[in-house]
UniProtKB/TrEMBL annotation, chains A, B:
InterPro entries: Flavin_Rdtase-like_dom, Split_barrel_FMN-bd. GO terms for molecular function: FMN binding; oxidoreductase activity, acting on the CH-NH group of donors, NAD or NADP as acceptor. It holds the Pfam family Flavin_Reduct. SUPFAM superfamilies: FMN-binding split barrel. It comes from Leeuwenhoekiella blandensis (strain CECT 7118 / CCUG 51940 / KCTC 22103 / MED217). PANTHER family: FLAVIN REDUCTASE LIKE DOMAIN-CONTAINING PROTEIN, FLAVOPROTEIN OXYGENASE. Keywords: Flavoprotein, FMN. Residues 38-167 form the Flavin reductase like domain. The keyword Flavoprotein applies. This is Flavin reductase like domain-containing protein. Its cofactor is FMN. Belongs to the flavoredoxin family.
Amino acid sequence: MRHYTAEQIAELPSKYRAHFINSCTGFKSANLLGSISEDGITNVAIFSSVTHLGSNPPLLGFILRPTTVDRNTYENLKKTGVFTVNHVNQNFIKEAHKTSAKYDGTVSEFDKTLLNEEYLDDFKAPYVQQSRIKLGCTFENEYFIKENDCHFIIGRIQHIYVDREIQAEDGWLNLERAQTVCIDGLDGYALPQILNRFTYAQPDQPVNSIKDLGS
Amino acid sequence: MRHYTAEQIAELPSKYRAHFINSCTGFKSANLLGSISEDGITNVAIFSSVTHLGSNPPLLGFILRPTTVDRNTYENLKKTGVFTVNHVNQNFIKEAHKTSAKYDGTVSEFDKTLLNEEYLDDFKAPYVQQSRIKLGCTFENEYFIKENDCHFIIGRIQHIYVDREIQAEDGWLNLERAQTVCIDGLDGYALPQILNRFTYAQPDQPVNSIKDLGS
């Protein structure tokens, strides 16, 4: 195996290091975050850092770098208190990637891509019409990460919309059936296929396959 | 689409809600965290919350629930200051899942599974021998998430080991080639296939495919 030390990583060319370090922690979720300004200008931007935080209450977290393209999302969710999380589907990965361009706050990415905004149940923030799994969230809290000037944002899930055939009888979502993609690094999009589900692991007990994949 | 409100989510049976909410934010990374106690007892446990935090310095973050099975990992990394992150490969998803059983601190999961511990370059924490991408990390900081009593742990990447054929010329790791899996919910394991890579997105410019998938 090739071995990189911290000193060697620090000396890598900046773009090489960005590609390398962004992919070395494994696959990441692929979500479009929808928000709206107080002036009514919508924003949609791709995020690879959304992750599960807890089920009861239903919480998620994600990382924001307010000095870059994420700034509009940050300002919107701080001012309106709401945002949406929309799964990226294999059918629109290129349109999703385009939302990472640094448009200023006067332009909506919905106008610059083929993604369509959609409003559901009087929720103020726009959803992505094409997504098959969408969450309406309220801003819950933020933690400033002093190690690299990021914010870790906590959102509380208020609404979930999901196609019926995606959900198994035990509540689990078959994300393969939703054609949800994941992200490898800064710019790689991948489509996962479910290999298996396993029963709850207990000490010195066998682990078995769960057959219910939402068929 | 089926719509769940916050009130309906709160009233779901506990296990149903856990499966549902754990899968609704998209695919998650699949990593085994290796650590060692001051007494020399090793620990390896599966985590689905490891995510990229920054490239320079190279930082990652993950969520710990110190009251559950994660406690040994937490105590070890706080006392020794080191831990490893090892990609879960499709060849050992069942062994990886077994590490989620709640063994007490006197038992090493390396003795209870077919996973082998490995020591590289005098790093104190054990790596997983079978993994094709492994990181040696130091504990950098922690943030207490008061919303649900979790810790957000920041690790600094000190060593990266990667099979040579996995890395593209621009530094990107082809995680499909590494056979790295991702996680759907609490217990689903999925194998991603790369669909495409795209060029850096700029306002009003086309986005193109990147052909270098590390061939």
